[in-house]
Amino acid sequence: MLNFTLHKKDGYARRATVELNHGKIETPVFMPVGTYGSVKAMTPQNLHDINAQIILGNTYHLWLRPGLEVIEQFGGLHDFIGWNKPILTDSGGFQVFSLSDMRKLTEEGCTFKSPINGDKLFLSPEISMQIQTVLNSDIVMQLDECTEGNASHAEAQKSLQMSLRWAERSKRAFEDLRNPNALFGIIQGAMYEDLREESLRGLEDIGFKGIAIGGLSVGEPKPEMYRMLRALAPMLPENKPHYLMGVGTPEDLVYGVAHGVDMFDCVMPTRNARNGWLFTRFGDIKIKNAKHRHDKRPLDESCTCYACTHFSRAYLYHLHKVGEILGAQLNTIHNLHFYQVIMQEMRDAIDAGRFADWQAQFHENRARGTD
Ligand SMILES: CCOC(=O)Nc1nc2cc3nc(NC)[nH]c3cc2c(=O)[nH]1
Ligand SMILES: [Zn+2]
User: What CATH fold (topology level) applies to the domain 3-265?
Assistant: First the structure.
């Protein structure tokens, strides 16, 4: 089930509510990534504390480990991982698909070697739908082929047309399985505006509860990603959620919202946290920099997260240097909290019809650069 209520538009920016089987989410929304059923270094309680509304799991990874027979015992992913709010599952195979030597792609599906034990594995739209039905995720993604960003026009068109056939097969399998959740289609078309339109029109003819923008943040230059977002903004259907896969930096989130994106996921806030790269309103901080060794200030004076209200940069510098797990935990809490705060501020700004002002102020603050 998915009910979409559009509350307000401010340019292409949108403020909406998406009602799913495990609850309602307010958009624009950022989804922390929990590839193996865990958002790294975060407990479900930590996620509730930073107001996470929905998290992402990866079909491919969970299929391999722990495997469906385990998750089936718990009636799906929610009870297994102790998260009672919505979950979206994408393939996660995107990384695998890009490891081209690992895989063979045919009309039927994708064959690849298990990176765990070398077994031959086969993933088709039908199998992906079976896996996501066992996971019982609130939002299911069609199986597609993530076209490489540097594909030629001919290659990109061939690829998007196969993804449309896989979209059809995904939907049919999803319905045959009586899956009670919501299925999203994924737009491909590489960096070609005409192909992006062809892909979107094809998906709309098939009919999905939501539309994802795929094939971006796959190594293409940032201006190319932004050009595709500008091209897509006027085409995206108003009556359903728009999900930009795998994006992005704080600046990317703002640019995406300004161009009609409602949902985002990215490993950046969690991965960068573990590497000591911290996002703040006034720019980024590399906590491993010796300049922080004696600094008694919090990361960000204006931040209300647990890390900033209890600890200093000096302590976070120390924890990073000695490799303490607590360092990864506190840095992750801070980065995810920061991402949630800017999403909340954008929701409020759109409600108040002042998104452009908020966007200008955001960029001015962030322009102070990396500390
Ligand atoms: C069964 C669901 O299939 C997918 O998840 N397909 C898919 N996933 C993507 C994930 C991405 N992550 C990034 N950047 C980090 N870009 C992505 C693109 C896709 C995609 O085109 N297609
Ligand atoms: Zn903080």
Answer: TIM Barrel (3.20.20)
